[in-house]
Specification:
The chain has 148 residues and is an alpha+beta fold. The protein has four helices and seven strands, in the order E-H-H-E-E-E-H-E-H-E-E. It has a seven-stranded mixed beta sheet. Strand 4, helix 3 and strand 5 form a beta-alpha-beta unit. It binds coenzyme A.
């Protein structure tokens, strides 16, 4: 299995996984969000896919904040349910954090995530910022080289 930057031709496969995992999320918006990596926007998300034998098993995205490019968000961490609980999501998370740490010309300081499953992100050092954030989501942060 390898982790690599998504290509335009991966978008349809990523979209299939997203539709299974988040059936209620507006489909047009989801597709726009995935295609945004290949747009002309000043700040674009980067999606990383987990690939094995040419099959996309899952993906996740990260993007710097507009207000401060040392603060990143990780979002849309999605593994195809067929391959859940095999450690792929954890490896993908470590890859995303490493890539953020190695972002060229930027000393990344903090990663934010909004999630319904804080237990999954705790493993990587994320801590809750708010007990309750938005409905059943909690906001979490990982301080990379910055102590508040
Ligand atoms: C969350 C997700 C990315 C984890 O990927 P994965 O490859 O299954 O992760 P790993 O195998 O590395 O780790 C699995 C562990 O994560 C935790 N976990 C994952 N999903 C969980 C959930 N919905 N509720 C509680 N714990 C969960 C459990 O501890 C699980 O261990 P278990 O399989 O022994 O129960 C994947 O389940 C997924 O795509 N879920 C749907 C989309 C989603 O919720 N994404 C997160 C958005 S913030």
């Amino acid at each position: 299995m390898k982790f690599r930057k998504a290509k335009k031709e991966d978008v349809s496969k990523m979209f299939e996984i997203l539709k299974i995992n988040s059936p209620k999320y507006p489909k047009k918006l989801a597709l726009q969000e995935l295609n945004e990596m290949f747009s002309n926007s000043l700040i674009k998300p980067i999606y990383i896919v987990a690939e094995d034998k040419k099959e996309v098993l899952g993906f996740g995205g990260f993007i710097p904040s507009w207000i401060d490019n040392m603060i990143f968000s990780i979002f849309w961490v999605n593994i195809n349910p067929k391959y859940k609980s095999q450690g792929i999501g954890s490896k993908l998370m470590r890859d995303l954090i490493n890539r953020i740490n190695k972002t060229k010309n930027v000393k990344a300081k903090m990663i934010l995530i909004s999630t319904k499953i804080p237990i999954f992100y705790k493993k990587f050092g994320f801590k809750k910022i708010t007990a309750k954030y938005d409905r059943d989501y909690v906001l979490m942060s990982l301080n990379l080289n910055y102590k508040i």
